[in-house]
Amino acid sequence: MLTNWIPVTHRQALHCKQYAYLVAYLPAALPWLGLSLAQATGNYPLWSFFTPMVVFGLIPLLDYLLGRDALNPTDDEASNLSQQPFYRLLTLACVPVQLLSLGGALWLLPQLPDWLSQLGWAVSIGIVSSALAINVGHELIHKNERLEQQAGALLLATTCYAGFKVEHLRGHHVHVSTPVDASSARYGQSLFHFLPRAICRNVRNAFQLEAHRLQQRDQRFWSRHNELLPWYGVSVLLALMAFALSGWQGLGFFLGQSLVAIVLLETVNYIEHYGLHRRRDGDGRYERVTHQHSWNANYLLSNLLLFHLQRHSDHHAFPKRRYQVLRHFDDSPQLPGGYMAMIVLAWIPWAWFKVINPRVEAYYDGKPL
């Protein structure tokens, strides 16, 4: 808990946490720090992978050392925090940071000495895009304000995954933790079985959902009313700009970092709902979504880095809640680590099943996790 290692009152802890969210910009700095180390040592192939080394090596360790954060705002505090512009500006500022990150990476790409260094660079920038573009884009598309929705869609377009806005809001949040949802992993399903199906089905579902919406309004698919077309157009424009800046290398880099970001997103989806399900009532309808249909991870550092994405249980119960007022619930299913550690675990299926399957079984048996 935050107040366990910072000797302050509840109110002071909330104030400290306000500025602690600035750590969410750390991923954007990591590739450039790795580049500095590469230039200092001459070992570009090694230090181009500095970002994944920190994100999936050091951060899980720091997560365990710093511990959990069970600090929940009261109702009055939540109302006040939701109105403060500082939190909104933090997420909106990710748009220029993400665009500068991509532009700078493309400019530097031809200067890297070999293909392995360029691969590490694409993986590193893809990790940045997963954090600043997809994660923050996810936060923004849930909001009512048009500026935030448009900013979120633009961020998603930088990873060629604009359809996520449509499918996530109209598909995933409706069908979460049911067999209908492509982003809810079944018990015993490996990540490698889940990933290609989730990506393909989610892209297809986005276009089907948008086509259905347009049909209901008696509007044509190929028209200005289709919200997918302009955002995928932005992705095409960015790809052309990447080609203009750095040729085929630039185009490959842009598509590669997009793929890394998309794979990380769907890996997180796998983690967030693995093995959980909504029961049917007597009429065959699924029960209402609550905080018990998503895995919760309450580790302080990774939650700050991801704008409280790991308080996913509360997010699905109340999708419009802003990140700064999402709450921890003890009776939600609890992951044994933050998302960075869980991503590594998910990529080793036998280890994932050994650790997580007993927790799924214990949760549904009513046993403490």
Order of helices and strands: HHHHHHHHHHHHHHHHH
What share of the residues does DSSP label as strand, in percent? Answer: under 5%
* Amino-to-carboxy terminus distance: 18 Å
How many distinct helices?
17
Number of strands: 0
Subcellular location: Cell inner membrane
Protein name: Alkane 1-monooxygenase
Family: Belongs to the fatty acid desaturase type 1 family. AlkB subfamily.
Domain Fatty acid desaturase: 114-343
Task: Annotate the secondary structure layout.
Elements: H1 2-5, H2 10-20, H3 26-41, H4 44-47, H5 50-66, H6 75-83, H7 85-92, H8 94-108, H9 115-141, H10 146-157, H11 163-175, H12 191-216, H13 228-273, H14 300-305, H15 312-317, H16 339-346, H17 349-364
Short key terms for the protein model shown above:
17 helices, mainly alpha, disordered N terminus
Can you offer a commentary on this structure?
This protein has 369 residues and is an all-alpha fold. The chain has helices spanning 2-5, 10-20, 26-41, 44-47, 50-66, 75-83, 85-92, 94-108, 115-141, 146-157, 163-175, 191-216, 228-273, 300-305, 312-317, 339-346, 349-364. It has one domain (22-217, 227-278, 285-364). Helix content is 66%, strand content 0%. α3 packs across α5 (50-66), α3 runs antiparallel to α9 (115-141) and α8 runs antiparallel to α9 (115-141). It is globular and about 60 Å long. Residues 1-7 have low confidence and may be disordered.
Quick structural gist:
With 369 residues, the chain is mainly α. It is 66% helix and 0% strand.
